[in-house]
Amino acid sequence: MIKIELKGGVVKEFEENITPAEIAKSIGMGLYKSVCAALIDGKVCDLRTPITEDTKVQLLTFDDEEGKKAFWHTTSHILAQAVKRLFPSAKFAIGPAIDNGFYYDFDVDTPFSAEDIEKIEAEMKNIVKSGIELERFELEPKKAIELLESMEEPYKVELASEHADKGEPISFYKQAEFTDLCAGPHLMSVSPVKAIKLTNCTGAYWRGDSKNHQLCRVYGISFPKASMLEEYLVMQEEALKRDHNKLGRELELFTTVDYIGQGLPIMLPKGARIIQLLQRFVEDVEQKNGWQLTKTPFMAKSDLYKISGHWGHYQDGMFVLGDEEKDEEVYALRPMTCPFQYQVFLNRGRSYRDLPMRLNETSTLFRNEASGEMHGLIRVRQFTISEGHLMCTPDQLEGEFRHCLELAIYFLKTLGLYEDVSYRFSQWDPDDREKYIGTEEQWDEAQGVMKRILDNLEIPYKIGIGEAAFYGPKLDIQIKNVFGKEDTLITIQVDQMLAERFGMEYVDKDGTKKNPYIIHRTSIGCYERTLALLIEKYAGAFPMWLAPIQVKILPIADRHFEYAEKIKNALEEKGMRVEVDDRSEKIGYKIREAQLTKVPYMIVVGDKDIENNTVSVRERKEGDIGAMSLEDFIARAVEEIETKVIK
RNA sequence: GCUGGAGUAGCUCAGUCGGUAGAGCAGCUGAUUCGUAAUCAGCAGGUCGCGUGUUCAAGUCACGUCUUCAGCUCCA
Questions:
Q1: Which single residue of A107, A135, A259, A346 has CA 20 to 30 Å from A14?
Q2: Rounded to whole angstroms, how far apart are CA atoms A590 and A350?
Q3: Mind giving me the DSSP string for A383-448?
Q4: Separation of CA A270 and C1' B27 in angstroms?
Q5: How far lies A348's CA from each of A76, A153, A343, A505, A507, in Å?
Q6: A181 Cα distance to chain centroid
């Protein structure tokens, strides 16, 4: 007998080799039916894992993150089984659970059509109805590879071969006629997968490498209850209504023009206003925090980029003007500000007394992104970033890094995005040396310094191998858009290579010359992308301090225009952005239109207001909040603007 | 760049088998002067993304190209 500690510290005795599935059954059939996986001594395990010693077991259901993953992973096997039945020649690659569902990659002659997907989904539902039990078995690596070869699954053979060296047995899962190489964990049977929806079918490269063959990836999601799927689909639909690319155009913040080109949005007056407000705010705060503004050129001769390494490592991403073969001088638009801002440091000899030197710039950059990569305002070819470079001594590095991070967090909090971000420590990939400059020792040192800083600051980060810049590791502050796709909003990077390349030195206290550490950082990221995320965050209803129009005055009849103008002037005197709707329309119509533009405040004025010397205020979310004196409204509005309150 | 969608009025969309393009909203004009989410009537609006081809005839078929959406790769 062994002792197993269950939920709530309850300890029960079981026969040796009992499995989590059997434990669940012993507690109740309801739990047995809903259990998806188990944590044994804190490790995620399959329900069929025999337990051999006293330990802690936590049973995971669909409500647990890892339970969901097992549920979705099993659904991906059902998908594969259905595909095998309908398209016997399909070859199978991988089919994991992801944050929001699952996918499976297939090698097929022609990608699945919408009709194919419908048929596959119908077959999946048949499989679920049949209630097939899943069986797990293990084979020695050699036998495993033989089996996969006999199944004519070249991708699976490749995967199994990589595991073979470890000498561990390789696990498979079998459900009726379908067997798949898989580490698990999985459900006991297909039955609990009551609601399935295949959501998308796209191309995806084998092993994520664009040099490899492109496979057909089918995405889907599943739930134990039909109502949960419905709820999910409604939520998705709601989320897509916030899509900045749609809303931003509807609210007349930006547009694009075919013959201008991809990734080159036109900021319309309202969008340009918001960006202007953000820029002024950022530049002012940076100035207060000891940053010195610079203005550097948008382009340079190729010579500059050869020193920085961009020419060798980033040329595909640059807009190059001229041809090295033919022209005496070749220029390129800048993809990054670094080598330009370094010239400020290099302007004269520097000593430790000049450090830290914090240089910021509202910097327009140009990157020749591949045509399929552009997306609304999130991924564009010309963008303006709150860029900055900070030169410091080794003992200033941690404090200055903290300063940069705190500044970024201050901006995130002010904009209301702080709760939505996650951190990624982006490191180099030692197996992909061509992508990076510097030696292994330099990378180890830079990453070691950065790790120490992050750990000291207790930043909860994920590690991203191969995500570093070509010159150094980064702390990327990540955010997801309405589609769940993650992008970098803010980045803070430690660089000890470019200073050497550019001959940047300072004279230290002891009279010796040293290369400074450089921190590359942005405080709020690039304005286009940040605006995109703000549109999605607020569904276009911006905090008042950022609203392009803050107050809309709605006179009830033409005879109230004069009073409306008077109020407008009073508000404008306080620096507010105000419009009067002086069309001969009914008040309901004017309110509807004002609401649709998401203006924070509407002021309705009519006979009563003139008589009582008041304004009738309507807030965009609360609705009519009644009549008040103009002074009271101004006090309320000014307070909201100055404190940058987010409603 | 790759895979798969899409492109018809400013916007949302309809357009059957290839037979000279249609609605709602927005716009303009007029009437209405109204108290918290759509007043009524009229008018105007289109080289069907662009190009080439097939055809007596192309929004519709074929090819090319541009833009755009999702995903992959890439990335602030």
A1: A135
A2: 62
A3: EEEEEEEEEE-GGGHHHHHHHHHHHHHHHHHHHT-GGGEEEEEEE--TT-GGG--S-HHHHHHHHH
A4: 20
A5: 62, 65, 9, 10, 12
A6: 31
Report the candidate in A342, A385, A365, A387 with the shortest Cα–Cα distance to residue A517.
A342
> Tell me, in Å, how far CA of A621 is from C1' of B20?
51
Cis bond before residue A88 (omega within 30° of 0) = no
Task: Find and give the residue nearest to B4, measured CA to C1'.
Answer: A202
User: Model confidence at A447, in pLDDT bands (50, 70, 90)?
Assistant: very high
Can you tell me the ipTM of this complex? 0.92
Question: Using the 8-state DSSP alphabet, how is residue A309 labeled?
Answer: S
Instruction: Give distance CA A540 / C1' B40 (Å).
Output: 33
Instruction: Give me the pLDDT at residue A161, please.
Output: 85
- What is d(CA A214, CA A560) in angstroms, rounded to the nearest whole number? 66
3-state secondary structure of A578: strand
pLDDT in tens, A478-489: 999 988 889 999
Summarised one tens digit per residue, pLDDT across range A311-365 is 988 898 999 998 888 899 999 999 999 999 999 999 999 999 999 999 999 999 9
Closest nucleotide to the alpha carbon of A610, via C1': B35
Interatomic CA–C1' length for residue A75 and nucleotide B39, angstroms: 56
Q: Say which nucleotide is closest to residue A206, CA to C1' distance.
A: B72
Cα–Cα dist A329/A336, whole Å = 20
Which nucleotides of chain B does any protein CB come within 7 A of? 1-5, 7, 11, 31-39, 49, 66-76
The pLDDT of residue A167 is 75
Q: Which nucleotide is nearest to A205 (CA to C1')?
A: B72
Q: How far apart are CA A599 and CA A577, in angstroms?
A: 10
Give which of A114, A91, A3, A90 is closest to A52, Cα–Cα.
Answer: A3
Q: Indicate the DSSP class of residue A629.
A: -
**CA atom of A632 to C1′ atom of B33, Å:** 29
A594 vs A111: CA distance, rounded Å: 47
**Residue A590 CA to nucleotide B41 C1', Å?**
20
Nucleotide closest to A612 measured between CA and C1': B35
What is the reported pLDDT for A197? 93
